[in-house]
Amino acid sequence: MSNTTEPSVEYVRIFDTTLRDGEQAPGCTMTLEEKLEVARQLARLRVDIIEAGFPAASPGDWAAVHEIAREIGTPDGPIIAALARANRDDIDKAWSAIQPAAKKRIHTFMSTSDIHLEYQFRKTRAEALALIHEMVSYARSLCEDVEFSPMDAGRTDPLFLREAVAVAVAAGATTLNIPDTVGYLTPDEYGAMIRDLRENVPGIERCILSTHCHDDLGMAVANSLAGVRAGARQVECTINGIGERAGNASLEEVVMALHTRQQYYGLRTRVETREIARTSRLVSSFIGVPVPPNKAIVGANAFAHESGIHQDGVLKYRQTYEIMSAETVGLDSNTLVLGKHSGRHAFRKYLEEKGYKLNEEEFQHVFARFKDLCDRKKKVDDRDIEALIAGEMQHT
Ligand code: KIV
Ligand code: ZN
């Protein structure tokens, strides 16, 4: 069965690498059962490709990839990809691990920057090109869907990058993934790199160009979107942006940017956005890393309004301070947080929702005491307000 999709369909493929690059983050390892549970949820999220792991890394990794391929790699499920360095042994292990999947992909990579070639691989550029040709051809002899990544593309001499990508295309790669491995580039530079490859590598129009951006300077999402604007049609990303060092581009941010700014990008994804919040919580609970409250899309404060002015606006018309709805990402609703910045409007709504019935004089009294309390206490909760109301009732 073919993995390729109509080139005319203008959508961006979402390649989730939470179980591979994400799991490489310090302290983010998962058990086989946890990985399976995440993969099930990623299938519900309807990502296009799951990179299930790096089978050559350990027998446990091989087993996890194999199990995910068996259970999640159904004909109408996602493509199951496995990572392999550019050597036969890795490629064989990746290929055997993904065997049970209906749609399989081998993802092989080789560094192309001089700094990696000289200090890490101790290879010349010519040797790197020969290896890319040999290993992409080998992977392609096994699997019709082969992705190649020139690692550290972001710091590779642009002319040599063109050569390396051209060799991979000629050897049969179907997806060319362009990693900013160390998160060094700016959006303008990343977009220009993708555009340059599109315009100067013969045969590249037959392939899908893909982004893979790390977040060392906090630009992974912006860089990925710049890549999409320049013609990339696959984005590699992770749930909650986990990954090596500062992490990868966050899936939820990329997807919701494309969704919310659909008119701007003119593209879509196949992701079921209402599964986003659930997926984020599942990953966070398995790896034991909490999501920061101010994290875009999935942080606890992403749909919470505290200031009186914002609460007033949102109560009158949500779009005054919301560019997307909490329900779109799978939350029950937005929240109005009661704190010292809250106004009468939100406080009255809260009391009504809780079933308290106060006359105007009582309300004004309780509101004044609530404001006093907020100055003394950082967080005011339901119990505090219950106590305020009880106190008011005793007085009247
Ligand atoms: O960041 C990177 O370069 C990678 C490759 C293996 C694709 O993760
Ligand atoms: Zn990476």
TrEMBL record:
Q: Which residues form the Pyruvate carboxyltransferase domain?
A: 12-277
Q: In which pathway does it act?
A: Amino-acid biosynthesis; L-leucine biosynthesis; L-leucine from 3-methyl-2-oxobutanoate: step 1/4
Reactions catalysed according to its record:
3-methyl-2-oxobutanoate + acetyl-CoA + H2O = (2S)-2-isopropylmalate + CoA + H(+)
Q: EC annotation?
A: 2.3.3.13
> Would you tell me the Gene Ontology cellular component terms?
cytoplasm
Q: Which GO terms describe its biological process?
A: L-leucine biosynthetic process
At the top level of its lineage, which domain of life is listed?
Bacteria
- Residues given in the record as Mn(2+) binding sites: 21, 212, 214, 248
So what does this one do?
Catalyzes the condensation of the acetyl group of acetyl-CoA with 3-methyl-2-oxobutanoate (2-ketoisovalerate) to form 3-carboxy-3-hydroxy-4-methylpentanoate (2-isopropylmalate).
The record's similarity note reads: Belongs to the alpha-IPM synthase/homocitrate synthase family. LeuA type 1 subfamily.
Q: What is this protein called?
A: 2-isopropylmalate synthase
Q: Native species of this protein?
A: Chloroflexus aurantiacus (strain ATCC 29366 / DSM 635 / J-10-fl)
Q: Which gene encodes it?
A: leuA
Instruction: Say which residues of the entire protein are included here.
Output: 1 to 396 of 568
